[in-house]
C-alpha cells in the first residue's frame, strides 16, 4: 500500500505520517508538501531515514509535478491535508486560500482520475457548517447540517468539499471526507490559539484574546483525529462525509486561563483585543456517525491532552522558537500591533 500524504510537513499531516508509519509498518508513505510558512521539514526529521518514507517538495497545484509523482509511485490512496489553514490570514488575503484549497484539490483529484486510485480522502473542517449560537447548547453539527460558511478559509474548504463530492458523482472517483473540529497537540504552528498562548506565556508576552473570549471551540487531541482518518480510509464508505469531534467544548478564555495556571503565569498577561471579523461563536460536532459505523471514539481526555501538549512545547522549545524568530515576527506585528 502506497499513500501520498499532502501537507505532511504541517501540524496534523506530520502527526498522521508518524501515526501511519507506526500503525502500518509495511506501508509506503510519500509526503508531498510545498513547505509554505506552515510547513517544517525539521518536523519530519524523525522519519526521514525510514526506508518506507519519502519526502517530495511540490505544490498540489503543480499538475506536472503530480504527474511525475503518480508515475513514479503508483499510489493506492491520497490523503489531502495540504491547505492554507489559518482563518486570520484568510481574512487578510483570501486569494492563496482559493488557489491552494480549491484549485489544488481539483489538480490532485484530476491526477487520481488519470492514474486511478483506491481512495481519495479530503481532510476538511467543521468550519464549513458555519457556527452555532451560544444559547442553544442542544445543537450540534451533523453531516446533514447545511454548508454555511463565514470566512474565506471556511468558504475555500467548503468549495473543495463540494468539488470532492461532485468528482464522486460525476466521475465515480472513490472519495471520502472527514470534517473535524479544532485539533491541538505537538507541532501545532504557533499562530493558532493554544500554541500561541503557550509560547507567549513562556516568553511573558501579552495573551491576545479576541473580543470577550466567549467563543466556543470543540477541541480534539491530534492523535485521535489521525486514528479517525486511518479508520475512514480503510473502512469508511466511499462517497461519505464523516464528522470527527470529541464533545469537548471550551470557551477560549477558559483555555487561556488554564494555560496560565499550568505554566504558573499570572492571568494579568491576558489582553482583550479587537475581535476577529465575522468571528464564529460556537463549533460543536456530533460524531455519532463515525462512532456507529466505524467504532471511533476519542481516547485522549482534554486534561491529559493539554498536559501532554504543554509538556511537548516545554521540551521542544527549539522547534517553535526557530519558527517565531523568523518571518513570523512580521506576521505577528501586522496582526496584533494595532488591535
Ligand atoms: P498547517 O497549516 O499546519 O499545514 C498545512 C501544510 O500544507 C503545510 O505543511 C504547508 O506547507 C502545506 N501546504 C500549503 N499549501 C500547499 C500547497 N499548495 N501544496 C502543497 N503543500 C501545501 O495545517 P493543519 O492545521 O495541519 O491542517 C491540515 C488540514 O486539516 C487542512 O486541510 C485543514 O483545513 C484541516 N483541518 C485542520 C484543523 C485544525 O484544527 N488545525 C481542524 C480540522 C481540519
Ligand atoms: P484558531 O486557533 O485560529 O482556530 P479557528 O479560528 O480555526 O477556530 O482560533 C481558535 C479560537 O481562538 C478562535 O475563536 C479565535 C481565538 N483566538 C484568540 O482569541 N486569540 C488569538 O490570538 C488567536 C490566534 C485565536
Model description:
- The longest helix has 21 residues, at 95-115.
- Helix 1 (11-23) links the parallel strand 1 (2-6) and strand 2 (28-33).
- This protein has helices at residues 11-23, 63-73, 87-92, 95-115, 152-171, 193-202, 222-235, 252-262, 288-294, 302-315, 317-325, 328-336; strands spanning 2-6, 28-33, 53-57, 77-80, 119-125, 175-180, 183-184, 207-210, 216-218, 220-221, 240-244, 249-251, 270-273.
- The chain is an alpha/beta fold and 339 residues long.
- The mean pLDDT is 97.
- It has a domain at 2-188 and 219-246 and 282-300: Rossmann fold (3-Layer(aba) Sandwich), CATH 3.40.50.720.
- Helix 1 packs across helix 7 and helix 4 packs parallel to helix 5.
- The chain is globular, with a radius of gyration of 19 Å.
- The protein is built from 12 helices and 13 strands.
- 43% of the residues lie in helices and 17% in strands.
- The strands form 4 sheets. It has a 7-stranded parallel beta sheet, sandwiched between helices. Strands 7-10 form a two-stranded parallel ribbon.
- The structure holds nicotinamide-adenine-dinucleotide and thymidine-5'-diphosphate.
